Structure formats: C-alpha cells, structure tokens
C-alpha cells in the first residue's frame, strides 16, 4: 500500500461525490429565484407552485452538499499537511473568504428564505433568496480562485522556499479563474436544466398515463384535473410544462456558454499547461491535426503504440492558437521541455520517500485525460440535443405517451452531471505530477513556484490510516447517496403537493392556512 496513492483516491472520491451536489445547488438555486421573481411580479399560482416544489428539492440537495463538503477542508490538514504548509500563505485567503463571507451569507439568507414564508414581506423574502443565490456564486468564485492558483500560480514571491502572496489583485483576478468561474456556473445551469426537464417530463407523462390530460384531434393537449387528488388540476399541468420548457432553454444556453468559455480555457491551457492539453488530444507528435479517435495504448508514456484513426486537420491549431496552421508541440517534445525546466528526477529529499531520485513522469494518465475530455464534451452535447428535441416534442403542450421516452428523459438528468464530473477529473488529473503546476511565464525566475504531488501528502500518516478513512468515508458517502436519492425521488413523485401541504388541507375542506406550513415546507 502506498499512502500517496490512497490519499489521492480518498480526495478524488470525496471531491467528485461532493461536486455532484454543488452544480445542482448553484444552478437550481438560480432557477428557483427566477421562478419566485416571476410569481412576485405576476401573482400567477403556477409560479408559486414551481417555486415551492423546485425549492424543496433545492433544499434537500443543499443540505447534503454542506454535509459532504465539510470533509474536504479537514483533508487538507490531515492527509495533505505538506501541501497546506507550502501554499497556506496563499491558498488560505480565498478559502477563508469563502467560509467566513460567502458561505455565511448564503446559509444565513437561505435560512431567512426557508422560515420567512408568511413572516417576511414578499419583497424581502424574495431578496433573501437572491442574496443566498448570489452567495453561492461568490462561494464558487473563491473556491475556483484557490484551485486556479494551483493551476497557474501568480501574485507571489518565494520566501524561505514558500510562496507568499504579494499581489492579492493578481491572485483574485487570475485569468485562469476568470474563465473557469463562468465555465463552472454555466455547467451548473446545465445540470439544473436537465433536472427540470427530466422530472417535468415524468409528471406530464404521468398525467397522460392517468388520463388527466388528453390530446385533441389537432394533436394539442387538453389539460384536465383529478378532483380526488390535491394539486392535480389544470394549474399543475402549467407547472410541469413551463418547468420543462424553462429547463430545456436553460440547458441549451448552458451548452452554448460552456462551449465558448471552454474554448477560451483550452487556449489558456495550451499556454499554461501544454502537457495537459497534449495528453487530452493524445497528440504524441508535433502537428496541427485534432484526433477525433485514437487507438492503441493511450496509457503509453512515450506514445509509441498510439495511432490516430480519425483526424481533423488544423483543428488542434485552432483550439490552441485560434488559427489552422500553428505547429502545436506533442507529448514527446514536451517531455524533453519539462525535464529541462523542472528536472528529470524527483529531488533527493526525504519528504519524497521511496520516490526520491526516481525519474519524473510528466505525462498524466492519458486514458483519463483523453476520455475525460471527450466525455465532458459528449455528455454536455447530448444534454443540449435532448433539450432541443424536448422543445420540439412539447410544442403542442404535452409529452408523448411512450414510456421509453419518459425513462430516457429521466436518465438524461445524469448527462450534465457526468459532463461536470468528467471535466473536473480531467482538470485535476491532467495537472499531474504537480499538485501546484508551474507557471511557464516564471521559468528560470527565483519566484518560480511548483510542487510535486508526491511531496504534498502528510508524512506522519500511514497508508493503513488513510486506507481506513477512505473505506469509512466511502461507506458513509454511499449511505448519504442512498438518503439523498430516496428523498429526491419521494418528493419528486409526490409532485407539487409534497412541497405544499396547504394544497392537501384545501382539498380536505380546510382553508389552507395551517400554522406549521413553514416547518412542513422546510422539513
């Protein structure tokens, strides 16, 4: 057992799991805020129902995200103490601002929104939600600033072998962060869009299956209602149709936005981390062609057994430089360049353990970078295509009766989750063997900053201890996954009435003014 590899697995598993909640929280929060704004401005009942139903699912996901995110900060000190010691003077600032400023704003105003129904004036209540949503976006900004500094260190001076922040403005306006922030936020909107589309499709299909909605001779929907069930009326039909179409539009806008910001990111990566992008394309040799499909052993470190089957001439140059003729360096050329700049062997330092003096492998795991890059784009494209098809199929006011289409729409919720996860895995794994990647602009400078991942793990923690925590955390996170999925599925199947107990009370002959409706919404 190797402590470094186990620690990397632990951080990878917990981070990817946590990040499943993050984009849905950010994206769905914004959508719910827009829905409540529409209700506040128009007074239409369907927007109130949409706000409460999607808000309920938003809260479930938010709480799970908080619970799983706490572990991340402890790992920096417990499993990666050498990393924390090395970058603490820089990395600590954005993390502290995220926790002490953004997260407290987010959680405080979200609490006001949860418990403020009928207690706050409508305008103040809406403002509380918008403050919480803006807080979540600012929180994401600070986290991405910290991560972007690891990808592209700027604004520091080396003092006694450690980077010290000397230019906070450079750190917080790092061009890597300024592109990654909108890319991440747009990716979050894609998750929210598919979430709305899949669940709304299920409810529209269920209404047709139950005979509530029918289709006329012209193919247009005839909304009905079931007086025996609370909330299953004509307003309910408008809730799901508008939610579906909002979700589809959001998903399409998200894909267009992530494509633009992703292209900018790609050009920055070619400048800042050329090996990462070369590995993502399996570009073993210098050239201009983009590999649509390569075969062979893409895990080969010298690319000796990799052959491009389908190539697009000039596209790699366009992705890198914006033209079609620039010769882009491949993996083999970059290996020599990296060895000359950062050393051919791991430094002879006890902190590296058995790796001290061994040759440095500057090529990341190409199976991960190559397929991760394609999965990121592929899943995002599938979600956008599904959204366009959904807009077309629902143009007459409902969804087809085919069960397989409904199941496909529900399963399609996972596509943007997969795109987000693949994108982050590609970003982090492609940086290896560095935990703090070097800034090429500082090559040869006394202020040059980089750190090998092998030096970042805590020296006082044994492989057995990390393995134990890995197993325990994985089991706990698996249990939390079961809890979240069951809660989401339970309230999803319950429809609007599951988030609005007052509908059931009205249905039973009451006035719908129960005293505990706020707590019922929250819990």
TrEMBL record:
Sorted UniProt keywords: Cell membrane, Electron transport, Heme, Iron, Membrane, Metal-binding, Transmembrane, Transmembrane helix, Transport
Cell compartments where the protein resides: Cell membrane
Pfam families reported for this sequence: Cyt_bd_oxida_I (PF01654)
Main localisation: membrane
Transmembrane domains' residue ranges: 20-41, 53-71, 91-115, 127-150, 177-199, 239-260, 371-393, 405-426, 466-483
Membrane-related topology note: Multi-pass membrane protein
Domain of life: Bacteria
Annotated family: Belongs to the cytochrome ubiquinol oxidase subunit 1 family.
Protein name: Cytochrome ubiquinol oxidase subunit I
Taxonomic source organism: Sinomonas terricola
Taxonomic lineage of the native organism: Bacteria, Bacillati, Actinomycetota, Actinomycetes, Micrococcales
